[in-house]
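We were asked to recover a plausible sequence for a given structure. The inputs and outputs are reproduced exactly as logged, with field labels preserved.

PROBLEM: sequence recovery
POSITIONS: 206
GIVEN STRUCTURE:
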């Protein structure tokens, strides 16, 4: 078996201590990874309570492990516990460099809670960091539409399509709004484009 670390039998005691420390740290990383796999299996089986327990066990081994903290948030989200998911994603936001991802996840939780004003706040934070993210623009359009601000919904749907012209949902959404607003010519274009893109996607599916 290959030796990963060479612990000197003679010489610097600090070197030996450091080597033992790194071995322990690597063991903990492996342990956390194995527990994380178990949590994902439980989540796939929709055993969310067990998945959360596994996440807590992993975090007891290694605190502030980003992947586990965020996955615990997903477990709460998928089980409909949106307030707990928000708490988890806020903790994730406090330690991760991927701030825009955390803000978007928190925004989606607020959407599920029908709190579109708070959702807007976090989606705008996400967009400030990642202005070329078409999905965030779409989420903003949805929130504004739910709040009755049709003009801003249209603006963000156009932004979505300027970033991703093949987003069939954005074409469909914009087409429906324009139809309601009486702009039949442009509504027809976007609704037709949405249908075209959906057909193309279905044909390409294996």
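RECOVERED SEQUENCE:
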């Amino acid at each position: 078996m290959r030796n990963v670390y060479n612990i000197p039998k003679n010489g610097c005691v600090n070197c030996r201590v450091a080597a033992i420390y790194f071995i322990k740290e690597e063991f903990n990383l492996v342990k956390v990874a194995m527990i994380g796999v178990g949590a994902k299996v439980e989540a796939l089986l929709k055993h969310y309570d067990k998945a959360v327990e596994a996440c807590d066990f992993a975090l007891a081994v290694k605190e502030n492990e980003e992947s586990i903290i965020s996955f615990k948030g997903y477990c709460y989200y998928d089980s409909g516990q949106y307030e707990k998911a928000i708490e988890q994603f806020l903790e994730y936001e406090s330690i991760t460099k991927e701030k825009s991802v955390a803000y978007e996840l928190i925004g989606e939780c607020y959407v599920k809670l029908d709190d579109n004003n708070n959702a807007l706040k976090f989606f705008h934070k996400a967009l400030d960091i990642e202005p070329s993210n078409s999905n965030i623009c779409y989420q903003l359009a949805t929130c504004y539409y739910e709040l009755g601000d049709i003009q801003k919904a249209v603006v963000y749907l156009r932004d979505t399509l300027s970033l991703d012209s093949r987003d069939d949902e954005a074409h469909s959404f914009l087409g429906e709004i324009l139809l309601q607003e009486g702009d039949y010519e442009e509504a027809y274009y976007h609704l037709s484009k949405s249908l075209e893109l959906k057909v193309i996607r279905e044909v390409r599916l294996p």
